[in-house]
C-alpha cells in the first residue's frame, strides 16, 4: 500500500526560504510523475510543480522562478525548495505520487 508523507512546513517571514519533503513509501516512483500542489485558505487546490525525473520538471504558475524540485529516486523522495516566500504563499502544501495524496504540510508566511 502506497503512502505519501510531506514534511518541512512551518512559519517563516517574508523573503525567507523553505524546503518541503515528499517521501513515498510502498512503491517506487521510478519515472512516474510526482506533483506538488498547494491550497491557500478558502481557495481551490492548485498545481505548483510536476516532476518526472531528476532533470525533467514542469514548474507552473504560483512559484515559477522561486521554486525547484529535487528528486532522489533511490530515496523515493521529491523535495520542493522554495525561496523568497511571500504572505500569499501561505497554504497547505500537498504531494501526490502513484495515485496517492499525502496529508499535506502547512506553510505560513508572515509579513
Structure summary:
The chain is mostly beta strands and 111 residues long. It contains no helices and eleven strands.
Polypeptide structure, described:
The chain is mainly β. It contains no helices and 11 strands. The chain has strands at 3-7, 10-13, 18-25, 34-39, 46-53, 56-59, 67-72, 77-82, 91-97, 100-101, 105-110. It is globular and about 40 Å long. The mean pLDDT is 93.
Attribute tags:
4-stranded antiparallel beta sheet; mainly beta; 7-stranded mixed beta sheet; globular; 111 residues
Q: Kindly report the average pLDDT value.
A: 93
Q: What series of H and E elements makes up the topology?
A: EEEEEEEEEEE
Bin the helical content: under 10%
Please work out how many helical segments DSSP would assign.
0
The Cα radius of gyration reads: 13 Å
Secondary-structure map:
Blueprint: E1 3-7, E2 10-13, E3 18-25, E4 34-39, E5 46-53, E6 56-59, E7 67-72, E8 77-82, E9 91-97, E10 100-101, E11 105-110
Parallel strand pairs: 2-11
Antiparallel strand pairs: 1-3, 3-8, 4-5, 4-9, 5-6, 7-8, 9-10, 9-11
Amino acid at each position: 500500500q502506497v503512502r505519501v508523507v510531506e514534511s518541512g512546513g512551518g512559519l517563516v517571514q517574508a523573503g525567507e526560504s523553505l524546503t518541503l519533503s515528499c517521501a513515498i513509501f510502498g512503491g517506487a516512483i521510478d519515472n512516474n510523475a510526482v506533483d506538488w500542489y498547494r491550497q491557500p485558505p478558502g481557495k481551490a487546490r492548485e498545481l505548483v510543480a510536476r516532476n518526472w525525473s531528476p532533470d525533467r520538471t514542469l514548474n507552473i504558475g504560483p512559484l515559477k522562478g522561486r521554486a525547484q524540485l529535487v528528486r532522489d529516486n533511490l530515496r523515493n523522495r521529491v523535495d520542493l525548495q522554495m525561496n523568497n516566500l511571500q504572505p500569499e504563499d501561505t497554504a497547505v502544501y500537498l504531494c501526490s505520487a502513484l495515485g496517492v495524496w499525502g496529508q499535506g504540510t502547512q506553510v505560513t508566511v508572515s509579513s
